[in-house]
Amino acid sequence: MKTSKNMIGAAGEYYVCAELCRQNILALPTPKNNPIFDLLASDPEGKKTVAIQVKTMSLENNQGWRLGVDMENDRNNPNLFIVLVNMQKDGTNDYYIFQHDDFSARVRGSYRNYLETPKKNGDPRKEVNFRWFDFSCFNEADKNRKNNWSILGF
């Protein structure tokens, strides 16, 4: 049976919470349907708190992380982060941590490159109402984000 998108998303959020707690960072999910972030994370003293949006790619997904068009929008909030979760068949996960506006710039650039690259038959590409990010979009800096929780600033 195929796992629902809601279950994959929830699993990703809990995986991120668990990983942060392993590192002595308190992480809590927010109520569902919060439009900007899914988790709040704080150091044990409550001196630093960040908000995290989680995007999870399931085992069956070979196309990358599917994102809303609004993922291109900067939020101008240095305490807002994105964690891309890549579930692995062996039960482990890889996490790619971005400051939100760094990620939105990467998504904008990747989408612009997509639009500027003609189809195989030479026709121009058309606008689509979603965005994506996959490993073909990764640059060296993106690869260095893998499991690099220090990006959160704790």
CATH architecture: 3-Layer(aba) Sandwich
Helix content: 25-40%
Beta-sheet strand percentage?
A: 15-25%
Termini gap: 39 Å
What's the total count of β strands? 7
If you compute it from the alpha carbons, what radius of gyration comes out, rounded to the nearest whole angstrom?
16 Å
> What fold name goes in the CATH topology slot?
Trna Endonuclease, Chain: A, domain 1
Bulk shape? globular
Oligomer: single chain
Order of helices and strands: HEEEEEEHEH
Lateral strand order in the biggest sheet: 1-2-3-5-6
What is the level 1 CATH name? Alpha Beta
Class per helix and strand makeup: alpha+beta
Major sheet: size, sense and barrel closure?
A: 5 strands, mixed
Helix run count: 3
Q: Average the pLDDT over all residues and give the rounded result.
A: 94
Summarize the structure.
The protein has helices at 5-22, 100-116, 140-143, and strands at residues 26-29, 39-42, 49-57, 65-67, 80-87, 93-99, 131-133. It is α+β, with helices and mostly antiparallel strands.
What would you note in describing this structure?
The structure is a single chain. It contains 3 helices and 7 strands. A 5-stranded mixed β-sheet has the order 1-2-3-5-6. The protein has a two-stranded antiparallel sheet with strand order 4-7. A hairpin with a 5-residue loop joins strand 5 and strand 6 (93-99). By secondary structure, it is an alpha+beta fold.
Task: Please tag this protein with its features.
Trna Endonuclease, Chain: A, domain 1; 154 residues; two-stranded antiparallel ribbon; 25% strand; 7 strands; alpha+beta
